């Protein structure tokens, strides 16, 4: 942050497919690993895709359904899905993103549906881990852990970031549903998507200063 930061305001950033491009292919790699894990947990090849999609829709994350109904352990998911992804090969440091984040005048907080180890790996690969005050993540070991778009996840993010007024919260995410819930809660939210459906939207994270110019120190951003 700069010398003119607003300590009463926080901008929450989603991580996966938001801070890096969707076309890196991590969605497909993650899905394949989740399906493989589901098969070892007893799902059949005929039903694994539909069942995993149902769990994602009903529980916010497929892993919640696999843990709830098939005995998948947090350690299984961490080892065979998150921990097995070749993040260091696919995600490279992003100097432009780092410059943009450093120009933000308010507090920066990561808010992800991933586990903490995965979240830190991604931020480290991008070269921006040090720019976030904290990370609100999904603790897979917690029974019925909340995740976006559940309101409890947003309330946890506010609590952990130490902000009580939703009008002081800004949010950037690639999921339209996640953005819609944030708006319902009174946050100012931006959707990062090539097919955005919400009021404030950008096609890539680097366009953020264009839609929220009031949050940036333009003198730093332009240098």
TrEMBL record:
Q: Name one GO biological process term.
A: pyrimidine nucleobase metabolic process
Among Gene3D superfamilies, the record links this protein to: 1.10.150.450, HAD superfamily/HAD-like
Instruction: Please provide, alphabetically and separated by semicolons, the GO molecular function terms listed in this UniProt record.
Output: nucleotidase activity
Against Pfam families, the record matches this protein to: Hydrolase (PF00702)
Coiled-coil annotation: which residues? none
Entries under SUPFAM superfamilies matching the protein:
HAD-like
Its protein name is: Suppressor of deletion of TFIIS
Source organism (scientific name): Coemansia asiatica
